[in-house]
UniProtKB/TrEMBL annotation:
PROSITE patterns, alphabetized: GP_PDE
Keyword Signal belongs to the record: yes
Presence of keyword Hydrolase: yes
Residue ranges of every copy of the GP-PDE domain listed in the record: 1-204, 220-332
Record-stated family: Belongs to the glycerophosphoryl diester phosphodiesterase family.
The protein, known as: glycerophosphodiester phosphodiesterase
Encoding gene (name): GDPDL3
Record-level Gene Ontology MF annotations: glycerophosphodiester phosphodiesterase activity
Catalytic reaction annotation: a sn-glycero-3-phosphodiester + H2O = an alcohol + sn-glycerol 3-phosphate + H(+)
UniProt keywords, alphabetically: Glycerol metabolism, Hydrolase, Signal
PANTHER family assigned to the protein according to its UniProt record, in alphabetical order: GLYCEROPHOSPHODIESTER PHOSPHODIESTERASE GDPD5-RELATED, GLYCEROPHOSPHORYL DIESTER PHOSPHODIESTERASE
Length: 332
């Protein structure tokens, strides 16, 4: 096997492919195996019976869950499995056709009572529950979880990965994303499918339902860098207020000096790095001062405090080379 996502380490490329029986041995003494049968129709085209294979495997090893995006396959095995095995219907894209019913998954989503006749749960992409808009900002949650729970279906959410682009609402914190699904005050999913299981494990075991006034366990200071400069432009009132609400212990203030001698909090002496000064009438004040930096800058000591107050702040984006932008909706 090889790592399919190239930003992840290839250090373990070359490990052997495992069988279901191999995984059963690995999982001892902790029970719990989930088999996902993604393409039963493909096996059938090649005169192979995935149904027979799964039924035989269930007699050798304890299978906790079997999921499939094919209604026909799940209905064909529902009465033949041990009681300990739960069946889960896996939803694909809402416009994709389910092969055995010829309905879209979006249509099937509106008929959860039908799903309940052959499955005890559903597995859905996380966007089915917490959709995001084209700008990667959270939209109001759907009623899917509560609707499914009302008819007796468990709900499992998929597509979680720490190194995937997630909504800006989470401030690049995957832990916050899991908590949004299990500790939002309205509902909780019954499970999550994750590339990095340590993070949901932390969310469930350590951080869920602590509330906003949790007791501090370790005497370590959290110090802001220009306030919450990942969420708002550095050293602005919004950045400092957000840092306080996030629970920071110490607010930092990098002190710069204006032309008229007013000390101000600003992350850089060069206003080009933190404001729209280059697009303002003060752009003519650009100067090269090798002792400070290479290339042109427009420096705080070249503008009065009233001049500086007239500028618009800009959010820092130190990782744009990796297409990681910071909160573009509030960049100014």
């Amino acid at each position: 096997v090889v790592q399919a996502i190239y930003s992840r380490t290839n250090l373990y490329d070359g490990l052997p492919i495992l069988t279901v029986d191999d995984i059963a041995v690995l999982s001892k003494p902790q029970p719990g195996i989930w088999l996902n049968i993604q393409h039963d129709a493909f096996f059938s085209q090649h005169k192979l019976s995935m149904r027979s294979y799964v039924l035989a495997a269930s007699k050798r090893v304890v299978i906790s869950y079997i999921s499939s995006p094919e209604v026909g396959f799940l209905r064909s095995i529902t009465s033949r499995l041990p009681k300990v095995t739960k069946l889960v219907f896996r939803f694909m894209g809402q416009d994709v056709l389910e092969p055995s019913t010829n309905q879209t998954y979006g249509s099937l989503l509106k008929n959860l009572t039908f799903i309940k006749t052959f499955a005890s749960g559903i597995l859905v992409p996380k966007g089915y529950i917490w959709p995001v808009d084209s700008g990667l900002y959270l939209q109001p949650h759907t009623s899917l979880v509560s609707d499914a729970h009302k008819v007796g279906l468990e709900v499992f959410a998929s597509d979680f990965a720490n190194d995937n682009l997630i909504s800006y609402n989470y401030s690049y914190d995957p832990l916050a994303e899991y908590l949004q699904f299990i500790d939002n005050g309205d509902f909780s999913v019954d499970g999550v499918l994750s590339d990095f299981p340590i993070t949901p494990s932390e969310a469930v075991d350590c951080f869920a339902h602590l509330g906003t006034n949790a007791t501090k366990k370790v005497n370590t200071l959290v110090i802001s860098k220009y306030g919450a400069s990942g969420d708002y432009p550095a050293c602005t009132d919004l950045a400092y207020t957000k840092a306080i609400s996030d629970g920071v212990d110490i607010l930092d203030c990098p002190v710069q000096l204006s032309e008229d001698g007013v000390p101000i909090c600003l992350s850089s002496i060069d206003l080009i790095e933190t404001t729209n000064v280059a697009q303002s009438t003060f752009s003519t004040l650009a100067a090269t001062i090798p002792e400070i930096k290479s290339g042109n800058g427009i420096y705080t000591f070249s503008l009065t405090w009233d001049n500086i107050k007239s500028l618009t702040p800009t959010i820092l984006n130190p990782f744009t080379n990796y297409t990681l932008k910071r909160n573009p909706k509030f960049r100014n």
